[in-house]
Amino acid sequence: MSERAAAAATAQGSAVIEALPRRPGGRELLDLGRDRDDLALVGGAVRDLLLGIVPKDFDVATDARPEQVKPLFRRALIIGRRFRLVHVMMGADTVEVSTFRGADPDTAQKDEHGRVLRDNVFGTQAEDARRRDFTVNALYFDPATEEVVDFHGGLADLKKRVLRVIGEPATRYREDPIRMLRGVRLSAKLGLRLDAATREPILELAPLMERVPPARLFDEMLKLLLSGHASACLRQLREVGLHKGLLPLLDVILEQPLGERFVTLALAQTDERVLAERPVSPAFLFAALLWHEVLAAWRGREARGERSIPALENAMDEVLDTQCAKLAITRKLTATMREVWGMQPRFEQRSGQRPYRLLEAPRFRMAYDFLALRAASGEVPAEFEAWWRAFQAADADTRKAMLLPETGPRKRRRRRRKKRPAAPTPAPA
Ligand code: ATP
Ligand code: MG
Q1: 57 is catalytic
Q2: Ligand 1 atom 5: the closest Cα is on which residue?
Q3: For the segment 338-354, what is each residue's pLDDT rounded down to a tens digit?
Q4: Which CATH number belongs to the domain containing residue 131 in this structure?
C-alpha cells in the first residue's frame, strides 16, 4: 500500500472501531482481535460498517489453520470437508472464521466453461483478497493495528458508491456464475452502482447460471428475496438480463399484467416486513412468485376438461417439477406452498360448515394472506377477501348470518355433472 492509501485506511479503521460495538457481538470481536494479531474482520461486515449499515453477520479471516483457531474459542467447531473453516458461536451469532485461501484462479481446476471446481488451498492475505468477488468485499479490518487493509481499491469504490469486480469480470463470472447474482443483490441492497465493465458481460454470460448447483442457486435466491430489497433486486435482474435463468418463466410471469402486479405486491410486502424486522415466510414468497404459473397450468387443464381440484393438484406438480429441477426448493417449503395454493379454492365455499373448517386449517393465516394478495392484485374480487376478513373477526351469531345459502355450489355441481355424465363424483376438498 502507498503511504497515502495507508493513511486513508487508518482513518477508515477508526470508523469501523466506532461502528462495530453498536452491533451485538461486535465489542467481543473487537476485544478478541486486539488480543491476537492474526485475526481480521473481512467481507460484508467491513463494507457495511463503512457504509453505516448494520452488518447481517461477521466473517473473520486469519492465517491460522482451523485446528489452531478452534481451541481459541469456547464454542467452536470445524466444518466443511473440502475447505475447512471454523464456526464460532458468539451469543446468537455464528461467526465464520476462515483461513486465508490461496487457490490461484489461473491454475485452479475448472470445468469446460471456466467454472472453478476445486478451490481449497490455504494462502496469503493478498491471495485471499484476490479471490474475493468485489473490491468492496475485499477489505480487511485488523483490530490490532486499527487499520483497514485494502488491496483492490475497495475504499475508493465505496466512496464513489461503485460495485466493481476484482480482476476481469467475464473470467470471474465464468469461475463462479453466482457472482453475477451477488452483484445484482449487493448493488440493489447497498445502493451501489454496478461499474460498467462489471455489468457489461452479464447479459451474455447469463446462461452460465444453468451450471450452478440447484441448492446453491436456491440459497442465493433466498438471500436476494429476503434482503429487504427484493423489488429493487428483481428490477435490477431484469435490467442486466439475468432474470431468465433464475426461476424458469419468471420473465413470462413478469410480463403478464396480473402476474406482474401480483409479484410486485408480494415483493413489496416482503421488503416492508424484512425492513421492519418482522418474520417472513420463504414458502409464502415462493408460492407467490410461482402462483401465476400454477394458475395458468390449472386453467389450461380445466379448459381441457379436467375437474377443478385434480387439475389444481396436477398443475402444482407440473410447476414444482419444472422449478425444482433448477432451484432446489426444499421439500418442507414445497409442502407448505402446496398447502397455501391448495387452500385457495376452498375460500370460494362460504356456506354450511366449510368456512368453519377452513378457519381451523393449520395454514389458514398464510392462505388468507395469500388470498388478500390475490385480491389486491385484482385477481379475485375485493369483496371476497373482505368477507373472509370480516368472518374471521366476527362473533358466532354474525358468522352464522354471513354464511351464503347452501344451494349455490350444489346447483352448479349438478349442472356440471349433467354436462359430463361419465365424470366421477368430485373428491371432497
Ligand atoms: P451479506 O452477508 O451482506 O449477504 P457478504 O458479502 O458478506 O454479503 P457472504 O456470503 O457473507 O456475503 O460472503 C462473505 C465474503 O466472502 C464476501 O464479502 C466476499 O469477500 C466473499 N465471497 C462470498 N461469495 C463469493 C464468491 N462467490 N466469490 C468470491 N468471493 C465470495
Ligand atoms: Mg456476510
Answers
A1: yes
A2: 44
A3: 999 999 999 999 999 99
A4: 3.30.460.10
